[in-house]
Amino acid sequence: MPPSGNRPSRPILAGSVALVAVGVAVNTGFDAPLRTVPALLLIALGVAGVTSTESDSGTARLQRVAKRWWLVAFAAFLPYALATAPASESAAAVGDAFAGPIVGLVLESIAGALVLCAVSMTVCYGFARYGIHPGRPTAEERVLSGSGDD
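Above: the chain's sequence. Below: its structure in token form.
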């Protein structure tokens, strides 16, 4: 039986991550005067979409989601790190498969987007943990009820 509750919409989530990745690519790929505003706009819209998919989630779910985002971000960062800064000859051999300006831009965009999404989910979890989240008692309500940390 599938778990009850609202599940994030996969197309919205994928589109939001793609917006963040395009924003990172715009910031990396264009000259400084042309890139700042469009890149920030795309990144902000994408991050807002990612966080809106989990806006009604509880603290425990937000913690799990933040951990997953960090695992995915780390996994996406490995090919980028091998391609851009190999530390040994064997790493350089693996990194040669990812060599090239377009591949490097794509890897950087994906890794950067996933790190930004992981940070946004971590911030959402932090807000939920300390009572700054819809549906969660405020810090004052928790102190007055005497329940402390639930």
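The first helix runs from residue 10 to 29.
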